Amino acid sequence: MKASWDIFCSVVDNYGDIGVTWRLARQLVAEHQQCVRLWVDDLRAFVPLCPEADAGVAQQWQQGVQVCQWPEQWPEVEVADVVVEAFACKLPEAYLHAMKARPAPPLWINLEYLSAEDWVSGCHGLPSLRPDGLKRMFFFPGFGEGTGGLLREADLLARRRAFDQSPQAKQAFLQGLGVYAAENACLISLFAYENSGLASWLDAMAAGNKPTHLLVPQGRIMGDLLRWLGMEALAPGAVEQRGSLVVQALPFVRQQDYDTLLWCCDFNAVRGEDSFVRAQWAGRPFLWHIYEQEENAHWDKLNAFLALYVKDLTPAAAHAFTSLWHAWNAGSDMASGWNLLLEHWPELTAHAERWCLEQSLQADLAQALVLFYRNWI
Fold first, then answer.
1. 291 and 142 within one domain
2. In what order do the strands lie in the sheet with 59-62?
3. Domain at 194, CATH number
4. Which domain range does residue 195 map to?
5. Residues 131 and 187 in one domain
6. Of the residues 6, 85, 259, 273, which is catalytic?
7. Pick the catalytic residue: 17, 81, 203, 274?
8. Is residue 273 annotated as a catalytic residue, yes or no?
9. SS3 for 178?
10. Residue 284 Ramachandran class (φ > 0 left, ψ -120 to 50 alpha, else beta)
């Protein structure tokens, strides 16, 4: 059933919100033949993810999605069948009035942030009735039954496995980025917020017995990296070596290429929500830098996910994994945690793939949203 969708995205200070909504919009069009209009309040944040886009064009079509600048003065537009309010952004008052005036009310979905906390399944799909008569439905992505699942394109894992089985494809992709790693090097990607624990991790890798090639896309962690290197700048493609560690800066790449970068690496350090989910679909051990929240609320989310993720690991491997994540998110010393994790590398690598397969058994987020709409009408 073809429906119209308005997805509203307010960019805060990172790429997570627009990253998730852009993936969702593309998938709704490509796999479910929905008509999607994506409203973004900062198109400049959209362009790095979709380089063919133009931040100066208020309305444009990209990959089947109508991408629109969210204006301060709201225009008269037809209300969609499904209205997605992503991550607690507030809908324009004029649009809310138009929703009330619509003969058949739209399905209004508040798409929440991803969490593994126990309470999520109890709140997923619940309504909230406003005094003006409009009803909003809460929709929670998640990791198990009773949630909305995770964003995952239908052919994602098949494409990743085909890539894994083609050394030529991996080599061609990396060389396209100017990456020529030693054959026996451990390839690691690093995409994170500022972190005072980075220097200790870099020290540990530089002092390690095995060569490591660290790939760092342009982002907020670059300042900490430059301080450790003792440099003022590191241009995309530039390479620096310290001991056993080779550090290479990369350009900020489009979403599809970032997915492929994760597939190329043996270990991925990621941040926020979008890259967090994509690292899990890569089927590799990974490290999550969660977005900090007031009153340290993010630690509840972090520990809830860790408890779920490590439950099938041996106690020693679970301790190593948890210790490294805690050190990273506390900005504390990483050396002992990293060296301990290396002792359990084979188990953690096998577990990452099992986790990926387990999560792929549930409906993906776009599929769950479409089904939710069909059941609602």
1. no
2. 59-62, 65-69, 35-40, 4-9, 82-86, 107-111, 135-139, 127-129
3. 3.40.50.2000
4. 156-359
5. no
6. 273
7. 17
8. yes
9. coil
10. beta
| Domain identity same for 233 and 173 | yes
CA angle 82, 86, 92 (to 5 degrees): 75
8-state DSSP, 75: -
Dist. CA 20–CA 151, nearest whole Å? 8
pLDDT, tens digit, 9 for 90 and up, residues 222-273? 999 999 999 999 999 999 999 999 999 999 899 999 999 999 999 999 998 9
> What is the spatial distance between Cα 88 and Cα 8, in angstroms, rounded to a whole number?
10
Residues 172 and 264 in one domain: yes
pTM of the model: 0.95
Amino acid letter for position 269: A
Cα–Cα distance between 213 and 76 in angstroms, integer? Answer: 52
- Across 147-182, b (16+ Cβ under 10 Å) vs e yields bbbbbbbeebeeebeebeeeeeebeebbeebebebe
Residues belonging to the chain: 377
- Nearest CA-CA partner of 14 in 212, 219, 242: 219
The answer on 273 and 243 residing in a single domain is yes
